[in-house]
Amino acid sequence: MLCYVVKRLILRPQTRDDQGAILGIRKNTELAASAEAADDRQFVKSLARGFMVLRAFRAEDRGLTNAELSRRTGFPKPTVSRLTFTLLSLGYLHLDDDTGRYFLHPHLLTLGYPVLRQLSIRELARPLMQELADLVRGAVVLGMRDGLSMIIIERARHRTMATWPLDIGVARDIATTAIGRAYIVALDDKERETLLSEVRADDESRWREIERGIDDALRSYADNGYTLSAGDWVPEYNAVGVPLKLHDGTILSFNCGGYANRLDPDQLKNMGEQLILMVEHLSRAHGDDIGQS
To answer: Among 73, 76, 198, 235, which residue's Cβ finds the most Cβ atoms within 10 Å?
Structure first.
């Protein structure tokens, strides 16, 4: 009897209520991803401010005071004091009583770990990435988008790249890196236009230079199957990038690079070709699409 009921529920045609619920979810998702989200009545400003305080911390910081957090976030000091107290009580901040400086607490990692665990592709990618890193004597990185950055979620490197900063969780610029440009080329036209508008608003003074680099990346991807960043992010690092679109629509990006003074154009081209082969292999194993679907 139970099996019969379940079967009826699964096979029954969609009603208007079902269709309305689906449309409502899609509309909500689109609104949440838009610039108008912060003005919507569903948007909880106090919650957003709490996350903005957490995002104000940088890897090089040796703790931040309420005054420094106020300057970085633009929030009044009394507001910051209430937010840091709340985050401290929840275990996401640590306070040094002697200096009055706040530090991110390792408890924050409990938020990120489930995300990484859900990305089963990391387990498949890791040995392939290490094999490629050793082959080209460089570094291979897997990243996903976070605002105007790409966050490293997995990495592998040749022993000669041991000092290059490639820790999981490190952010890389989306517009000037090969890994970021790989993400951009995998977007559809509307999505890409929206993202580039955000990039331009964030750095209007460098927009023409950034736009040229992205246009070059689109041509490189069309001609060669990979994007390129030759000293555009930092002068001493060259890299190529290839996107991978998962079956749920999530776009991941792979980057393969090395020290600029060790890479001639032919070696960079070889990196690109080897990275394409690696992503194709991974795509077949995971059942996903390369680039745009």
So the answer is: 73
